[in-house]
Amino acid sequence: MSSTTDRKRVDVHAHFLPRGLQPSAESPLPRLELDTEDAGRIMLGDSTFRRVRRPLWDVEARVARLDEAGVGVQVVSPVPVTLTVQDAGYLHEQNLLLADEVARSDGRLLAFGAVPLWDTAAAVAEIEVLAATPGIVGIETGTTTAGGLELDAPELEPVLAAAQEHDLPLFVHPTGQDAAIRRRGAPYTFGIGMHTDTALVGAALVFGGVLEKLPRLRVALSHGCGSLPWTFPRMTYLLDAAATAQADALLRRLWCDTLVFEPTHLAVLARSFGAEHLLLGTDDPFYPSPLAELLGITEEAVAVGALSPQEAAAVETTNAWEFLGIDQG
């Protein structure tokens, strides 16, 4: 990687669906179906789940997109719908294909893999594979497992302990938003469901004992940790002083991305987690907004006084390397 690339931004929240991941059309497992060279669909059996564009599956198109937006390195994760399947072989194949795609990017892409959280032994075994796979730098998980377990479930402790042992950070993405709210449709599911779902898992990590039991586990929550920064003071209001202090300390163990769409909100995130625990994230390539616009939230935050210039620079670069556990020298 060149020195100029090293100085560019690091985006830790993005997604990629390898073209080679092709379960049979009769299978309900997610697959990519191309309509043209530049457009395709994520299919669940014979149903269209989502229409997508070429950067989702094409490394060259993705890197060109990063060049245009001024991103040096992007960490790509599995598409969230793939995290909800209950097929360990599918997740393993996806991990290997992601590693292959990353290897073709000349250092511009890294990847989070996925593990079958519902099967403790298989998940621990897959973590060992991920730890030995070049280009894989962490684990993406959903907010709940395919079997419905929350991340503070006792059954998952060996899995999270294995992630800690292998120094693989967790990146948590909402997958249970429909169950977190009572209304459906984009304004509710996207605007409230994802926030509520992510806040629930953040609270489980803090109050469910996960972070206390695993002091070296690094966990980042996408979408600005949802509504947790705003609801956390209410959650601790009735606790005594010692319990509140402990919860505050555990909260500041968490990391979160900047995908909140409002620059003033970054001041709340910095107060909750520490500005050193904020990570640049865009959900690329799923939003209609230009990538550069989503990345620009740090500059906007400086302009409105939500972050200092020094904090914004760290959010764009060095915080990510610290979270990933990668020494940049």
Give the arrangement of secondary structure elements.
Layout: H1 3-6, E1 9-15, E2 30-34, E3 39-44, E4 47-53, H2 59-69, E5 71-77, H3 88-103, E6 109-113, H4 120-131, E7 136-142, H5 157-165, E8 170-173, H6 177-180, H7 186-207, H8 210-213, E9 219-221, H9 228-236, H10 241-251, E10 255-257, H11 265-273, E11 278-279, H12 291-295, H13 297-303, H14 309-316, H15 318-324
Helix pairs in contact: 4-5, 7-9, 13-14
Can you give me a brief rundown of this structure?
The protein has helices at 3-6, 59-69, 88-103, 120-131, 157-165, 177-180, 186-207, 210-213, 228-236, 241-251, 265-273, 291-295, 297-303, 309-316, 318-324; strands at 9-15, 30-34, 39-44, 47-53, 71-77, 109-113, 136-142, 170-173, 219-221, 255-257, 278-279. The chain is of the alpha/beta class and 329 residues long. Strand 7, helix 5 (157-165) and strand 8 (170-173) form a beta-alpha-beta unit.
Polypeptide structure, described:
- By secondary structure, the chain is an alpha/beta fold.
- The protein contains 15 helices and eleven strands.
- An eight-stranded parallel beta sheet has the order 1-5-6-7-8-9-10-11, sandwiched between helices.
- It has one domain (3-324): Metal-dependent hydrolases (TIM Barrel), CATH 3.20.20.
